[in-house]
Amino acid sequence: MIKSYKDLQVHKEAFSLAMDIFWRTRKFPNEEIYSLTSQIVRSSRSVSANIDEGWGKRQYEAVFKQQLIKALSSNSETQDWQDYALACNYIEKEEHSEFTKRNEQIGKMFTKLYQNWKSYE
Questions:
Q1: Which residues contact 114 (CB under 8 A, 6 or more apart)?
Q2: Cα separation of 78 and 82, whole Å?
Q3: Among candidates 16, 18, 12, which has minimal Cα distance to 79?
Q4: Are 107 and 75 in contact, with CB atoms under 8 Å apart?
Q5: Class (C level, CATH) for 7-120
Q6: CA distance from start to end of the chain
Q7: For residues 79 and 41, is the Cβ–Cβ distance under 8 A?
Q8: CA atoms of 39 and 61, how far apart (whole Å)
Q9: Cβ contacts of 37 within 8 Å, gap of 6 or more
Q10: DSSP sequence for 9-44
């Protein structure tokens, strides 16, 4: 039974990935703190934050689904910033691959939630 957004597996996965990204970015060069580091941390946190915000509005289908779309968009943005981190040699290919797989899984979970959101009430 889902009683809170925190019970949603997609929220758990998104939060976990955001935290892993946060800790990984602590090793990025200082000159990236106001650009790449800030962007990737903010976009990754936005994923779970949009779930939270949408959950509080789930009785309004269009509003709830819009928040899910925003979360999915932030998930895609996070992937783009990870691609930059790889291109700048701030993360290794293996780590990038792991983060990418997690991003893709979260994206699939959003699609399922979007299509079946009534079953989560």
A1: 65, 68, 69, 72
A2: 6
A3: 18
A4: yes
A5: mainly alpha
A6: 9
A7: no
A8: 30
A9: 25, 28
A10: HHHHHHHHHHHHHHHHHTTS-GGGTTTHHHHHHHHH
Question: Model confidence over 16-37: pLDDT tens digits?
Answer: 999 999 999 999 999 999 999 9
The pair of three-digit structure tokens given for residue 113, joined into one six-digit string: 């939630």
Please state, as a whole number, how many other Cβ atoms lie within 10 Å of the Cβ of residue 56.
Answer: 12
CA distance 2 to 9: 10
pTM over 0.85: yes
Residues 41 and 22: beta-carbon distance below 8 Å: yes
Amino acid in position 28: F
In this predicted structure, the answer to whether residue 91 has a pLDDT above a threshold of 60 is yes
